[in-house]
Give the backbone structure.
Amino acid sequence: MKIGELAQLSGLNASRIRFYEAQGLIRQVERQANGYRRYPAQVLQTLQIIQCAQQAGFSLEELKQLLPDNVTGAFNHDELVAGLGRKIEQIEAMQLHLAQSKAQLLGLLDNIEAKPEGMACDANAERVLASLKHE
């Protein structure tokens, strides 16, 4: 299929597809005598994998390691499983960090909202900042 059809089916711009090709993520591209690219149908699946993986936080470099190799066109099972495991660990670490950040912000919000009655906003800000210095 030509790049226009691939772009329409994948929902990606032709320039994005060419970028993925230049980055080595799409490897099965043939050039016709007139220079036009001709993509096999499985490139659509590759583009879907790329989109899904990027939404999950994979970088293009990480994706290069997980996609089928140039020679056999097959996935490396062990590398795929290891790469997915590493990404899960990274996501879990981010979740822990985000949970800690959320807890800190909730504590700060509680402290701000615990403003003594009649205290001016400026004085409350000083009170909250002073409490942060002692933590």
User: Anything to note?
Assistant: The chain is about 65% helix and 5% strand. The beta strands are 30-31, 37-38. The helical segments are 3-10, 14-22, 42-55, 60-66, 77-113, 121-133. The CA atoms of residues 29 and 54 lie 22 Å apart.
